[in-house]
Design brief:
alpha+beta; Jelly Rolls; 15 helices; Alkaline_phosphatase_core_sf; hydrolase activity
Length: 780
């Protein structure tokens, strides 16, 4: 009897468990209401045996909700809190001022303290580690939070708005596609056009040469329509394209709202701007960065940007004083900041052209502009001494003052890639401590934001001080548009959105705080905010990785932000229990957001193995038309021996056979005046030319270059270069220095030198005038 009863009960448990699991499966499955893409609207006609007994009914694709606004997100690059006039800075930004005078200024808005992670959070509404973007793609490691592969479970704002009928476009910088996926080999699903954007016009990298950018239109490389000498600048080009796209959309469907993500490379280095703009600031910063910080601090208080009782934190000993610099250094550093100021003012002018065009739209009143002034604080990546060749500086190689002063009048021109020194970055982040990458303090993570929406925001120049984070932008946009975040996108269950809508602040300056807790982490620089308190740990500095203390001897600071807007008064020793509480909260948030493992490695992480379409191959064959190949998808011509062999036809032909890199660093194998020539450009400081003693005379020739590396396993050492013409040795010369890491932002190509030229012995692209049958490369 007991056995029979037990058997019956067991059967019932199995049945109920099965029913429960079925119910759960059904509950978790995507529905028409909570998934993207959406189906066409319901067919409401009639289907008979023939058309005579049937009734037509046109089904409609998804469309934005009635009254949904145009949404324009503008995101500048590497702008400090205290650099624009709108937020108390010394660089006039009249067009940003104009927006602020017609909307709201946010003085407690936060980014992640570095570019690509901020952009991932902006696009997805998730914290950067949850979006797979714990740091930059160049430093990616094989952990889900750090591989820089934005997961399908974190759909972007572009995907959600496009799925609800918005036309979507992205202009400018894309630093969210892993650089090993930016070649023609793809995949393309993490390019902008694969992330929900109908149209993309911009570059796939952390920065771009503004006179010679590597531009893509959707997924196709395109070249600038004129030269720098003819007035080309990428900032103007992308603004023209953005205005044109927007105007065409409204010409065809004036009542249909659009979404635009406008993300200039400006004002990230290289700081490129014409003489006309940089000359406007001659002598304006001769007082130096210490005094500049004091001037901006007082202006910020006068403008109401910061509280009247704010304290200006002192300069850290890691940052030299202006008075300790020599006269030659002061001359160079003043020119570098004058050049940057011209670049910032020029950028404001171009953004003003865009906003003027927006104001001319038929539905300008129902257009929400979210203008985020920087994806992190001002950048110190120019190092303590500044540089006129940023790639050289990022490679850990200093330029002498004499070298830089020789080119002082060219700073900002196409022949330079300038970046100001650390002191100006520190001043640019007034009133806060530290700089970009230092996520522990607001100098790295607090950026200005201005929002206008005439239909809804009626207040003029209103200041909002709610604590916000970049993850809050996506839910705010969706809230404004009346669109819900889907549970499923393309059948994939979505991670919860971390951000919250702050639309309440649009009409109420006293709106309740929406963000009570927020963690920060970049390169082990960490902070945790909670209800007015913040605990901070500065771990590494962009210009000094060697000071990382290890993870056993960390020093944390504690600030009460309700009384201390600028993080000037460390309370860690006075309130150890509160600090302990905050550290436990950081660990909890770090676990929840998959921040671990922490990693404070610098160059080692940069050169660590990463996925590559090249794989372990050592033999390559290229043909004409193989251009604009990213350096990471091309044969690695560094720290090893290799051979380049070009088979060509055509008498008296000249031009580039193969080039990699550009004006900052690179190599080019070409024929000039009939003679095969090889130029190695070591950071535009030492250029080695190897010229054949014989000319190409036959209808068909094989031209070979042998690069015999002399450094063994040590990187960046000397090499011997040899040129062969039809197997005859026709030139040989030592190359005393070679590049150990990357050539920079320029690309690899066969048959022409696109972008900034490796050498000034020719004008780009110097396309080969004969025919290149093939170029073979053998890596030794």
């Amino acid at each position: 009897m007991k056995t029979k009863l037990f058997s019956t009960l067991f059967s019932l448990v199995v049945v109920f468990s099965f029913m429960s699991s079925c119910t759960q499966v059904e509950k978790d499955q995507p529905t028409k209401e909570n998934s993207l893409p959406k189906e066409l609207s319901e067919f409401k006609g009639k289907i008979g045996k023939t058309y005579a007994t049937s009734e037509e009914y046109w089904q409609n694709p998804p469309s934005p909700p009635e009254g949904a606004p145009n949404v324009i997100i503008i995101l500048l690059d590497d702008v400090g809190f205290g650099q624009t006039s709108t937020f108390g800075g010394s660089i006039p930004t009249p067009n940003l001022d104009k927006l602020a005078d017609n909307g709201l200024l946010y003085n407690r808005f936060h980014t992640t303290a570095v570019c690509a992670p901020t952009r991932a959070s902006l696009l997805t509404g998730r914290n950067h580690h949850e979006a797979g973007s714990g740091f930059l793609v160049e430093w990616a490691t094989g952990y889900p939070s750090y591989n820089c592969l934005i997961p399908k479970s974190t759909a972007t704002i572009g995907e959600v708005l496009k799925g609800n009928g918005y036309p979507t476009a992205w202009f400018g910088k894309n630093h969210n596609t892993p650089d090993w996926e930016t070649s023609i080999a793809g995949p393309y699903d993490r390019w902008p056009t694969g992330l929900g954007f109908d149209y993309f016009y911009g570059f796939n990298a952390g920065e771009a040469h503004q006179y010679y950018p590597a531009i893509y239109e959707n997924t196709v490389p395109v070249e600038p329509n004129k030269s720098p000498e003819e007035g080309y600048h990428f900032m103007t080009d992308m603004t023209d394209k953005a205005i044109s796209w927007m105007q065409q959309q409204k010409s065809i469907a004036p009542d249909k709202p659009v979404f635009m993500y406008f993300a200039p490379g400006a004002v990230h280095a290289p700081h490129h701007v014409t003489k006309e703009w940089r000359d406007k600031f001659k002598g304006k910063f001769d007082h130096g960065w210490d005094k500049e910080r004091e001037i901006v601090f007082e202006r910020q208080k006068a403008q109401g940007i910061i509280p009247e009782n704010s304290i200006l934190p002192p300069r850290h000993e890691e940052i030299p004083s202006w008075d300790s610099r020599s006269e030659g250094e002061k001359k160079l550093y003043s020119r570098l900041i004058e050049n940057f100021a011209g670049y910032m003012a020029f950028t404001d002018y171009e953004v003003g052209r865009l906003t003027d065009a927006i104001n001319d739209l038929p539905d300008a009143d129902n257009t929400m502009i979210i203008y985020i002034v920087g994806d992190n604080g001002a950048s110190s990546e120019g190092g303590l001494e500044g540089t006129i060749n940023e790639v050289k500086g990022l490679s850990g190689i200093s330029s002498s003052l004499e070298e830089n002063l020789e080119k002082i009048d060219e700073i900002g021109d196409p022949s330079t890639e300038p970046h100001y020194p650390v002191g100006w970055a520190w001043a640019g982040n007034t009133p806060f401590q530290w700089v970009k990458q230092v996520a522990s303090h607001f100098g790295g993570s607090r950026n200005p934001m201005v929002i206008t929406w005439p239909k809804v925001i009626k207040e003029k120049h209103g200041i909002r001080d709610q604590f916000l984070h970049v993850v809050d932008v996506l839910p705010t946009v969706l809230d404004a548009a009346g669109i819900e975040m889907p549970t499923y996108v393309k059948g994939i269950k979505q991670k919860p959105v971390e951000g919250k809508s702050f639309m309440s602040t649009f009409t109420n300056e006293n709106a309740a705080e929406i963000r009570h807790t927020q963690y920060f982490e970049v390169l082990s620089n960490r902070a945790i905010y909670h209800d007015g308190w913040i605990a901070t740990h500065q771990h590494t500095l962009p210009w000094r990785q060697d000071i990382a203390p290890g993870y056993d001897n960390e020093v944390w600071e504690l600030y009460n932000l309700k009384e201390d807007f600028t993080e000037a008064n460390d309370l860690s020793k006075e309130n150890p229990e509160k600090l302990k509480e905050m550290l436990a909260l950081f660990d909890s948030e770090a676990e929840r957001n998959h921040v671990y493992p922490l990693d404070d490695r610098g160059a080692e992480r940069l050169i660590s193995p990463k996925p590559s379409p090249v794989g372990d191959r050592t033999s390559f064959v290229f043909h004409e038309g193989a251009v604009r190949i990213p350096e990471t998808a091309a044969p690695n011509l560094k720290n090893r021996s290799f051979t380049i062999e070009a088979t060509v036809t055509g008498k008296n032909a000249n031009g580039v056979l193969l080039a990699s890199g550009g004006g900052s660093a690179g190599l080019s194998f070409y024929v000039k005046d009939g003679k095969p020539t090889f130029t190695y450009n070591w950071f535009d400081t030492e250029l080695t030319d190897i010229v054949s003693k014989k000319s190409v005379t036959g209808e068909k020739s094989v031209i070979r270059f042998d690069f015999e590396y002399q450094g063994g396993k040590e990187p960046g050492k000397a090499a011997i270069g040899k040129i062969y013409l039809n197997d005859e040795l026709v030139a040989e010369k030592e190359i005393p220095k070679t590049v150990a890491g990357r050539f920079g932002v320029d690309t690899f190509g066969v048959g022409m030198d696109t972008g900034s030229p490796v050498t000034h012995h020719y004008k780009p692209p110097f396309a080969y005038t004969g025919h290149i049958e093939q170029v073979k490369i053998e890596l030794k």
